[in-house]
Amino acid sequence: MELKRRPRRLRANETIRSMVRENHVRVEDLIYPMFVMPGEKKKVEISSMPGVYDFSLDEFVIELRKVVELGIPSVLLFGIPENKDSVGSGAYHEHGIVQEATRLAKKHFPELYVITDVCLCEYTDHGHCGLIDNGQILNDPTLDLLAQTALSQARAGADMVAPSDMMDGRVGAIREVLDKEGFSHIPIMAYSAKFASGFYGPFREAAGSTPQFGDRRTYQMDPPNGNEAMRETALDVEEGADIIIVKPALSYGDIIYRTKERFGLPVAAYNVSGEYAMVKAAAANGWIDEKRIVTEALVSMKRAGADLLITYHAMDVARWLREGGQV
């Protein structure tokens, strides 16, 4: 039998494989999540996330230089405050930890694109993303605090704000306040498809944000629900979201695909802490090839439709790209 179609012709060597490769990870795709805390000369490795640290502000600036030198265009900032209270006041204080980190980042590296997380969970003594009354998470009273958080971050120099709380109406509340106060140019990257996932555990260690009672299932989405993710995203788009986050990423490629196909906005896949931790643990035990696995996972997110990759692997990926030219 004469074979006219031989797909293997285009797999014969790395040169031709790279020429016809359909999806790539570029350094321009990367957003690097970073954790900042008060104090000086502190760089504390997160035990469940090898290679990821809580940084005091002075160490944060040192690390940012490495980020910039590797060509990573953007960071996403999370804060660990010195004190917590029931209303998360550190989130929207003019001199809160994220606000101060933002000022430093823009002072030393003005071209670095600084995105700030908008939520209360790292700042509340109960660990929830909203105000509490009799054990209930209050939606509407929380919106003003979220809006004030976003406004304080914009005033500090943030290039973009990213509400992660999952309160109903928070994108609209933030957009209204930013526009009213002269920040209509600041985009909102909304955690629109954010699921109540088991993959978040290491992040809660890093940010000290584990709920002190209950869980977050009354505001984060139930993992089996894809149609609900589309409804949530539609609401955020209507309220003014500019970029949509799907979180987690690795087990939610279908949601990434559906989000991109339906809404056409830029989509950011959040390669979350538990996904990172699993790869690191397996690699440390010699069970997997870390570079190969990370590359495959991130490319799968791009193939599903993601435009941007929020990943704790960003520094490693940027180094691999510099060394090898493509991932």
TrEMBL record:
<keyword id="KW-0479">Metal-binding</keyword>
<protein>
    <recommendedName>
        <fullName>Delta-aminolevulinic acid dehydratase</fullName>
        <ecNumber>4.2.1.24</ecNumber>
    </recommendedName>
</protein>
<feature type="binding site">
    <location>
        <position position="232"/>
    </location>
    <ligand>
        <name>Mg(2+)</name>
    </ligand>
</feature>
<dbReference type="InterPro" id="IPR013785">
    <property type="entry name" value="Aldolase_TIM"/>
</dbReference>
<dbReference type="Pfam" id="PF00490">
    <property type="entry name" value="ALAD"/>
</dbReference>
<comment type="subunit">
    <text>Homooctamer.</text>
</comment>
<feature type="active site" description="Schiff-base intermediate with substrate">
    <location>
        <position position="194"/>
    </location>
</feature>
<dbReference type="InterPro" id="IPR001731">
    <property type="entry name" value="ALAD"/>
</dbReference>
<feature type="binding site">
    <location>
        <position position="216"/>
    </location>
    <ligand>
        <name>5-aminolevulinate 1</name>
    </ligand>
</feature>
<feature type="binding site">
    <location>
        <position position="119"/>
    </location>
    <ligand>
        <name>Zn(2+)</name>
    </ligand>
</feature>
<keyword id="KW-0627">Porphyrin biosynthesis</keyword>
<keyword id="KW-0350">Heme biosynthesis</keyword>
<comment type="function">
    <text>Catalyzes an early step in the biosynthesis of tetrapyrroles. Binds two molecules of 5-aminolevulinate per subunit, each at a distinct site, and catalyzes their condensation to form porphobilinogen.</text>
</comment>
<dbReference type="GO" id="GO:0004655">
    <property type="term" value="F:porphobilinogen synthase activity"/>
</dbReference>
<feature type="binding site">
    <location>
        <position position="129"/>
    </location>
    <ligand>
        <name>Zn(2+)</name>
    </ligand>
</feature>
<keyword id="KW-0460">Magnesium</keyword>
<keyword id="KW-0862">Zinc</keyword>
<keyword id="KW-0456">Lyase</keyword>
<dbReference type="GO" id="GO:0005829">
    <property type="term" value="C:cytosol"/>
</dbReference>
<feature type="binding site">
    <location>
        <position position="204"/>
    </location>
    <ligand>
        <name>5-aminolevulinate 1</name>
    </ligand>
</feature>
<dbReference type="InterPro" id="IPR030656">
    <property type="entry name" value="ALAD_AS"/>
</dbReference>
<feature type="binding site">
    <location>
        <position position="312"/>
    </location>
    <ligand>
        <name>5-aminolevulinate 2</name>
    </ligand>
</feature>
<feature type="binding site">
    <location>
        <position position="273"/>
    </location>
    <ligand>
        <name>5-aminolevulinate 2</name>
    </ligand>
</feature>
<feature type="active site" description="Schiff-base intermediate with substrate">
    <location>
        <position position="247"/>
    </location>
</feature>
<feature type="binding site">
    <location>
        <position position="121"/>
    </location>
    <ligand>
        <name>Zn(2+)</name>
    </ligand>
</feature>
<comment type="pathway">
    <text>Porphyrin-containing compound metabolism; protoporphyrin-IX biosynthesis; coproporphyrinogen-III from 5-aminolevulinate: step 1/4.</text>
</comment>
<dbReference type="GO" id="GO:0006782">
    <property type="term" value="P:protoporphyrinogen IX biosynthetic process"/>
</dbReference>
<dbReference type="GO" id="GO:0008270">
    <property type="term" value="F:zinc ion binding"/>
</dbReference>
<comment type="similarity">
    <text>Belongs to the ALAD family.</text>
</comment>
